[in-house]
Design brief:
The chain has 451 residues and is of the alpha/beta class. The protein has 17 helices and twelve strands. The longest helix is centred in the C-terminal third of the chain and has 21 residues, at 430-450.
């Protein structure tokens, strides 16, 4: 492979470059976050057509590790890692679902849902964790003493960290906010052998603890404060454009909590744009829960003000974050992409999720937030019938079974379950069963007319 290079540098432009295998998370000069930068002049030595052909030739093939949708773009992600130290489960390659029926219902027929939850641990976090754990494995191979890798999580990050560390033979340490993570998410790191702490606090409290722990004892930090994760997650935008035969959608709607995904997808689009693979940028929309909306509040001021908040409990638990780590990186991306920030309340997100399920999806509540925001932007005429729209679905609905059950049992507080579909309990009597079927079909016929 040709010699490509990437390094850490300050997001504010302070002098200094740091190796990706250095244990460093913030700029030593100003204390702000770091970002991964690439030798773009070297990357430009290949033409856009050559990069497209290379990525297409590797996509979902069997040559390790390039069949991974992340490592198939290794030169753009983390070029210095030896292939022997790449820890991959062939992440990515997820379905770009044509949401035809849902689109017809809302008047946007070119509507797509990028189903990032159809991944090894059931969320987009796999895409970043493969990069981070691979770098840690490289560091250990190079002789660095790293005893464990730790993260604070609202569920999905911990699952991805635990799985990739288990595959690499590295100890994972996980901090979860007690009673704020679904049981389906809680069991994942437990099953993969992580040391799991259930802490009586929220995510922001767990984040404070993990930062203190990882500042000592040779324990490496795996949260998106560490910009290695961004490099893997940025391949979502590259892959979805690749799935459109290298055409760019008009809008991309992303659920936003810690805001690493907004940053990552924006970075992927910018890299394609700078290297000539695409000739325009989409508008990026960040969708927040009304109960955890610090970015939305800043957006209302034109991003002139930003204040952390105490996030309130929300059905979209993975984005229940009041002090997002990537706030300034995300704001910079949104400014570049003519971005929009909108919010959804509990009733809106739950019903949006259920409506999408009735068209063949099985959405997590965070995707419900993005869909509810989509509906609002369509109603306002910002998103129009001719626009191509991609909604980023961040996790698999199977991680949120209790949310689904409570919705259809109409037991969610502050939610009127407009699409509830509970099972009918009947005796083993043919006449009653037949009557119930016919009544249901009549209602369905009427609802089709109403649509």
């Amino acid at each position: 492979m040709e010699e490509y290079n990437a390094w850490f540098e300050c997001i504010k432009g302070c002098e200094g470059r740091y190796a990706l295998t250095d244990i460093i998370y913030r700029c030593p000069r100003c204390g702000d976050l770091l970002q991964v930068a690439h030798d773009m002049d070297k990357l430009r030595q290949k033409s856009p057509a050559e990069w497209k052909r290379l990525f297409d030739d590797r996509y979902m093939r069997n040559t390790y590790p390039y069949g991974s949708a992340v490592w198939g773009k290794k030169e753009w992600v983390c070029p210095q890692i030896d292939n022997a130290n790449v820890v991959s489960m062939y992440e990515g390659g997820t379905n770009l679902f044509w949401a035809d029926r849902l689109g017809q219902q809302i008047g946007v027929t070119d509507l797509w849902v990028k189903q990032c939850g159809n991944s090894h641990t059931g969320s987009f976090k796999d895409l970043g964790m493969t990069v981070l754990v691979s770098v840690v494995k490289q560091m250990i191979a190079d002789g660095q003493q790293i005893r464990a890798v730790a993260c604070a999580s609202t569920g999905d990050t911990s699952a991805a960290l635990a799985a990739y560390c288990a595959a690499a033979g590295i100890q994972a340490v996980v901090f979860l906010p007690r009673n704020k993570v679904s049981i389906d998410q809680l069991i994942q790191p437990i099953a993969n052998g992580a040391l799991v702490f259930s802490i009586d606090t929220d995510f922001d409290g767990c984040m404070q603890l993990v930062q203190e722990v990882t500042s000592k004892h040779n324990i490496y930090l795996a949260n998106s404060l560490n910009s290695l994760r961004i490099e893997g997650q940025k391949t979502v935008s590259i892959e979805l454009v690749q799935q459109f035969d290298w055409e760019v959608p008009d809008f991309v709607i992303i659920p936003g909590g810690n805001l690493g995904n907004v940053t990552a997808l924006g970075k992927g689009f910018l890299m394609m744009y700078d290297l000539g693979l695409i000739d325009k940028l989409p508008r990026i929309v960040c969708a927040q829960s009304e109960r955890a909306n610090p970015l939305y509040r800043s957006y209302l001021t034109g991003f002139k003000e930003y204040k952390p908040i105490v996030a309130q409990p929300t059905l979209a638990s993975a984005i229940q974050i009041g002090n997002p780590v990537s706030i300034h990186r995300a704001i910079a991306i949104l400014k570049r992409f003519d971005g929009i920030v909108e919010q959804a309340n509990e009733d809106e997100l739950a019903n949006a999720s259920a409506q999408a399920d009735l068209t063949g999806m099985y959405t997590c509540p965070h995707t419900g937030v993005a869909l509810a925001v989509l509906f609002k932007l369509v109603e306002r005429g910002i998103i129009r019938p001719q626009h191509r729209v991609v909604v980023i679905s961040t996790a698999h609905g199977l991680k949120f079974t209790n949310f689904k059950v409570a919705y259809h049992e109409q037991k969610l507080p502050e939610v009127t379950s407009r699409f509830a579909n509970p099972p009918l309990q009947l005796p083993a009597d043919y006449n009653q069963v037949e009557r119930a079927i016919l009544e249901h079909l009549e209602r369905e016929d009427k609802s089709k007319v109403d649509w």
